[in-house]
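Lab meeting, item 3. Inverse folding demo.
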């Protein structure tokens, strides 16, 4: 199993790689960063900034494209919806949940609410 820092770093790298694929761009080289808190926090802010700057037209139609996957996960071609639903989201949440579990195992006082973030009734739609 990867360490907390490695799980965290892999999560950010996966965001970059999957978004590049969805945007039909070359995958950026993952940065080689030390696994220390200030650097990891900077990496998180960098990844967040990248996502905030993605323009809708850069991923328009991504769900209708076809994507090639190669080992170690699986070899084959997948439609965009399947790629996003069955690989991108589970892959990201796997690494985030493992990092969360490692922190809890190490004694961090974090729980489900910390994992879910600021979830409120306003987060959903109006179903009345």
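The presenter then showed the designed sequence:
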């Amino acid at each position: 199993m990867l360490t907390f820092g490695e799980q965290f770093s892999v999560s950010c790298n996966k965001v970059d790689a999957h978004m590049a694929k969805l945007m039909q761009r070359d995958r950026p080289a993952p940065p080689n960063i030390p696994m220390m808190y200030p650097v990891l926090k900077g990496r998180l802010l960098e990844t967040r900034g990248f996502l905030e700057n993605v323009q809708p037209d850069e991923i328009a139609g991504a769900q209708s494209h076809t994507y090639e996957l190669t080992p170690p996960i699986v070899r084959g071609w997948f439609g965009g919806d399947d790629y996003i639903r069955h690989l991108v989201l589970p892959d990201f949440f796997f690494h985030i949940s493992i990092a969360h579990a490692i922190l809890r195992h190490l004694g961090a006082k974090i729980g489900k609410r910390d994992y879910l973030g600021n979830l409120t009734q306003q987060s959903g739609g109006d179903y009345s």
